UniProtKB/TrEMBL annotation:
Protein name: Elongation factor Ts
Keyword match NADP: no
GO cellular component, one term: cytoplasm
Protein localization: Cytoplasm
Keyword terms: Cytoplasm, Elongation factor, Protein biosynthesis
Signal peptide: none
Residue ranges, annotated region (Involved in Mg(2+) ion dislocation from EF-Tu): 80-83
Function according to Swiss-Prot or TrEMBL: Associates with the EF-Tu.GDP complex and induces the exchange of GDP to GTP. It remains bound to the aminoacyl-tRNA.EF-Tu.GTP complex up to the GTP hydrolysis stage on the ribosome.
Gene: tsf
InterPro entries noted in UniProt: EF-Ts_dimer_sf, Transl_elong_EFTs/EF1B, Transl_elong_EFTs/EF1B_dimer, UBA-like_sf
């Protein structure tokens, strides 16, 4: 008879986020000793790290911190939503975010190669969690925004999951309310850039050609083509450019207009959606 209870299985699953069968096998091998079973899961997990490298990690969470003119946003991925909403995974994400803030990391590679206070690198921390949890875990993206005022906003797309969309918005002037309103707008409308100057000219030219070909296919008069093409290219800008988008709370105004009325100037933003 197994020397452990259903409560032991639940506790070990919650602590390690390992699968049900893996937990049971580990407890059997450890004769019910929870600490030994956790070590067994970790050792077996380490053996499988290389095998997991080819797997797809498309679940996970975003986590952020903002204050004193700096914001940091991190995306941490795993394979299943079960792991994503687990306490162990959340603790790992917080530890990774704390390190990103402490080291002023601006990209994932810098963060992974940085050394934690205990002497291990973030990559080693992730590998150890990978082993214990039994899934591929990946620090996908890191963003850092510096501005006189930075707001962080996290959005849950499902009440059962941690935040799946994260935004940083940096501005000068205005107040917390306008900063949060724009951050929420960014979460909902997913702009690509702050201003149209940031869009590759080749991309704009491609949009112009598509607009021209579409107008001709529709049989529009030759004389009207320039105006039609320009209108459609401007429509592209209004979708991609934050400051030109119609504001979420008042579609009659652009984001630029709303910021102007609040006495604020946008300085930058970052937006992550898990797995996107």
């Amino acid at each position: 008879m197994a020397n452990y209870t259903t409560a032991d299985i639940k506790a070990l699953r919650e602590k390690t986020a390992a699968g049900m069968m893996d937990v049971k096998k580990a407890l059997d091998e450890a004769d019910g000793d929870l600490a030994k079973a956790e070590d067994i899961l970790r050792v077996k997990g380490l053996k499988g790290v290389t095998k997991r490298e080819g797997r797809t990690a498309s679940n996970g969470l975003v986590i952020a911190e903002a204050g004193d003119g700096v914001g940091t946003l991190v995306e941490v991925l795993c394979e299943t939503d079960f792991v994503a909403k687990g306490e162990r995974f959340g603790e790992l994400a917080q530890q990774v975010l704390d390190q990103a803030v402490a080291t002023k990391a601006a990209d994932a590679q810098d963060l992974l190669s940085s050394t934690l206070p205990d002497g291990q690198t973030v990559q080693e921390l992730v590998d150890a969690a990978n082993a214990t949890i039994g899934e591929k875990i990946e620090i996908k993206r890191v963003a850092r925004i510096e501005a006189p005022h930075v707001v962080a906003y996290l959005h849950k797309t499902s009440p059962d999951l941690p935040a799946q969309i994260g935004v940083l918005f940096g501005s000068e002037g205005g107040d917390d309310a306008i900063g949060r309103d724009v951050a929420m707008h960014i979460a909902a409308f997913a702009p690509s850039v702050l201003t149209r100057d940031e869009i590759d000219p080749a991309t704009v030219e491609h949009e112009r050609k598509v607009a021209e070909e579409t107008a001709k296919e529709e049989g529009k008069p030759e004389a009207a083509l320039p105006k039609i093409i320009e209108g459609r290219v401007n429509g592209f800008f209004k979708e991609a450019v934050l400051l030109e988008q119609a504001f979420a709370k008042d579609a009659k105004k652009s984001v630029q207009k709303v910021l102007d009325e609040a006495g604020a100037t946008a300085r930058g933003f970052a937006r992550f959606r898990v797995g996107a």
